[in-house]
Here is the input.
Amino acid sequence: MSEHLHQNHPAIVKRLKRAEGHLRSIIDMIEGGRECLDIAQQLHAVEKAIVQAKRTLIQDHLDHCLDDVVGPLTLEKRQSVDTFKEITRYL
Here is the structure.
């Protein structure tokens, strides 16, 4: 498989590594008998970080790969593609 690197991939990796560290901390919290509220808050933070990483990856893919696939478009069709890209931000 060929290398497929986008502008935001390094930022996504950084975010995921931070989430990985948080997960290790959460495991330690559970094993250490920390309060459930504290654990739930940290799990929520990790969940948000992963969701944001996914959204960034999808947007990055759309911004770079979709245009390569569809090629040059009329203004009307370009607006449809741009609208599609915008609506995916709400996924």
Summary: The chain has three helices and no strands. The domain at 9-90 is CATH 1.20.58.1000 (Methane Monooxygenase Hydroxylase; Chain G, domain 1). The two ends are 28 Å apart (CA to CA). The helical segments are 9-31, 36-70, 75-87.
